[in-house]
Amino acid sequence: MCGIIGYSGSFCAQKILLDGLEQLEYRGYDSAGMALQKSNGELFLRKKAGRVSVLREACEGAPINSVCGIGHTRWATHGGVNDVNAHPHNCGKVTLIHNGIIENYHEITAAFGFAGRLHSETDTEVAACLLDYLYQGDPFEALRQAVDILTGSYAFCILFADQPGRIFCIRNVSPLVAAHNDSGSFVASDLTALIAYGKSYFVVPEETVMTLSPEGISIRDLSGQPVEPEILTVDWNVESARKGGYPHYMIKEINEQPEALQNTVLPRLKDGLPDFTDEGIPDTLFASCDNITVIACGTAMYAGMVGKAVMEQAFKIPVSVHIASEFRYDTPLISSRTLTIVISQSGETIDTLAALRLAKACSSRTLAIVNVKGSAIARESDYVLYTHAGPEIAVASTKAYTVQLAVLYLIACRFSLLRGCFTADQGRKFIAALLSSSGAMEQMIRHDQAIREAVKTVKRSDHAFFIGRGLDYAFSLEGALKLKEISYIHAEAYAAGELKHGTIALIEERTPVVALATQEKIFAKTISNVREVRARGAAVILIVKEGAQVDPDIYDIRIDLPVSQDEFAVFPAAVSLQLLAYYTSDAKGLNVDKPRNLAKSVTVE
Ligand code: G6P
What are phi and psi of 166, to 5 degrees? Predict the structure, then answer.
C-alpha cells in the first residue's frame, strides 16, 4: 500500500514524479504529494487529498524547475484523508515519504518529546522528526541509528536540506526497487513506475542505506560495507502497463487472460507434460509430501480453493486452504512432510509473507506462486513458480487469478504423474484441456450478450447471491468478491446445498442469484437448489456448460460456457463472473479500476 517514487538526474523531476505516481496510483488514492529539491537545497512541497490528477493540476499551474524529488500516493492508515496527513512529511532538515507502518510511533513521540512538533496524525511524521533529531550532517549515521529505534515495516525515501540532489532510502519488509540509467537514478515501490525508463532494475536489499544521485546509486550495509545488488531484467513492456485503448485496466486485463494463460503454461511443458526442473524445483518436493497447505489472501486465496478441489481429486492427498491473516496467528499443524504453497500476485502481501515465514519455521517446504519477480514472497520461499500475467493494475484481480489457477493445475498434473495417479497419456490430455481453456476464455469474452443482459438484473439490487457445489462453489466465491468490491453490491457466495440452513431467508422477489451448475456429478443436486430459490422469487442467472439440458422456467438468464470437461469450467466461468462485475460497476458509473477504500497491494496487517 502507498506508492513511492524518487528521481535524481538531469530531467524534469516534477514530470517524472507525476507520471510515476499515476502508474502507482493503484497502491492507494487517498492523497498524493511530492517534494522537489533545487540544487541550492531549496525545497518545494506540494500535497493534496484526492487523486494524483488533483496534485497534477496544482503542480502544472506553477511548475518547479528541479531535477531531484520524491513523490507519494497514499492509502491512509494513521490519520484521516486530508492535505496535512498526505506525504511527504517534513521536520527540520528532513523531508520524507513512507510506505508501511511504524508500530512504536507513540513511544517514540513520548520518549523524544516530539508531540509539540507534529502537525499531522501520521506515524510517518514521527519518523521524520526522529531522523531530524538524529541527523548531525551524516545521513548514513542518522539512518543507521534510526533503524535501531524504529519498529514495524517501512520503505523510506528521504531528502536532507543540506544534501541537494541526493535521495536516501532504507527499507524493512516494504518493497523498493531501483534503477540507474542514462536518464538518472530512480527508486519506486514497484516496477510499473520504472518500466518506461529501462529494462534493468534491482530490488533494494533490506538493512542497507541506498543513496541516489544523478551519477549513480550506492548501497552500504549498516556496518558501512558496500553492497552489490543483483541486477534483474524486466520482462514487461511499457504498453503492458498502459490501458492500450481500453476504457479501464480491468477490461484490458480480462482480455489479456487467454494469452497470459498460454504464457504461463507453455514454457513449462516438455513433451506435452509439465516439468519444473528448469525452475530449480525438484520432483522430490512433490513426491515426498503427505499433505499440502495453501495460504493466501483475497482472490489468491480463492484460487487456492479451486486448487484444493482439483488437487485432492487428482492425486488424493489432503489439501487445506488458509486465510493468511488467520494462519499467521494459529498454531499450524504442519511439518517437514507438508508442502506449503503460498499464492500472491504482488508477492508482498504482509499477512501472506508472515504466514510463509511461520510455515518455514515449522520446517515445511515452501513453494510460492507469484506474479512480481523478485518480490519478498518470491525471494523468501524455498521455491517459486512465477505466473506470467504481466503487470496487473486494476485493483480487482482478474488475470492474476486465472494464471494462479493455471499454475495450480500444472502442479496437480505433475503431482499426479509422480504419484502414479495419471499416466503420461492422461497427463497430456489434462494439459491439452488446460491449454484449450485459453480459447474458452476468448470465446466468453467475445460472446458476452447474456452477461450484459444479466447486468440489468444485478445492478438494480442491493444484494446478490452466488451458489454452487464443489468446484462451482469454489469459483463462486471469487465471483461474489468481484461483484462486491467494484460494484458495492452486497454479494454472498454459498454452497448451494447449505443455503436452506438459514441464508435462503434472504431470498426475496427478484433477488439476483447467480447459480453455477457446471459439474456433472452434482448437476441435478444444484439444479434442485436453483428450483428452491426460484420458488421464492429469485431472479436466477444460471451458468452451465453448453448443451446442458435445463428447464427454461427455472432461470431468467442462461450463460453457456464453451467447455466440455468439468474441471476446466472455471476458466470461462471466471471470465463470465469478472465481466458481470465489470459491466455492473461500469453501468453504475463507479470507478471500476479504483474502488473505494481498497488498494492493490496490502502491505499492512
Ligand atoms: C488485495 C487485492 C486483491 C488481492 C489481495 C491479495 O486485497 O485488492 O485483489 O487478491 O490483496 O493480494 P496478493 O498480491 O497477495 O495476491
Answer: -120, 135
Q: Could you check whether the bond before residue 88 is cis, i.e. omega within 30 degrees of 0? A: yes
> Which fold, 3-241?
Glutamine Phosphoribosylpyrophosphate, subunit 1, domain 1 (3.60.20)
Q: Do domains 3-241 and 251-438 have the same CATH topology?
A: no
Ligand 1 atom nearest the C-alpha of 296 is 15
Relative to the CA of 485, which ligand 1 atom is closest? 8
pLDDT of residue 603: 74
N-term to C-term CA, the chain: 11
CA distance 116 to 479: 50
Amino acid at the residue 45? L
**By the 8 A CB rule, do 105 and 154 touch?**
no
Q: What is the dihedral of CA 255, 258, 261, 265, to 10 degrees?
A: -160
Q: Is 298 in the pocket of ligand 1 (CB under 6 A)?
A: yes
Q: How distant, in Å, are the alpha carbons of 75, 101, 192 from that of 112? A: 27, 19, 38
Using the atom order of ligand 1, give the atom closest to the CA of residue 396. 9
C-alpha to C-alpha distance for 86 and 76, rounded to whole angstroms: 9
Q: Is the CB–ligand 1 distance for residue 404 below 6 Å? A: no
DSSP E strand boundaries for 297-364: 319-323, 338-344
The pLDDT tens digits of the residues spanning 120-168 come to 999 999 999 999 999 999 999 999 999 999 999 899 999 999 999 999 9
- Cβ atoms within 10 Å, residue 10: 11
pTM above 0.90, yes or no: no
Superfamily of domain 447-587: Glucose-6-phosphate isomerase like protein; domain 1 (3.40.50.10490)
Quickly tell me which residue has 481498497 as its cell: 598
Q: Which helix (H) or strand (E) holds 154?
A: strand 152-160
Pocket test for ligand 1, best of 349, 387, 477, 605 (most atoms within 8 A of CB): 349
Length of the chain (residues): 605
Is there an atom of ligand 1 within 6 Å of 352 CB?
A: yes
Is the Cβ atom of 579 under 6 angstroms away from ligand 1?
no
Q: Which positions of the chain have pLDDT values less than 50?
A: none
Domain 251-438, classified CATH 3.40.50.300, yes or no: no
Residue 578 vs residues 299, 342, 397, 464, 509: alpha-carbon distances, Å: 12, 23, 9, 15, 25
Count of other CB atoms within 10 angstroms of residue 449: 9
At 264 the pLDDT is: 97
- Phi, psi angles (nearest 5°) of residue 215: -80, -25
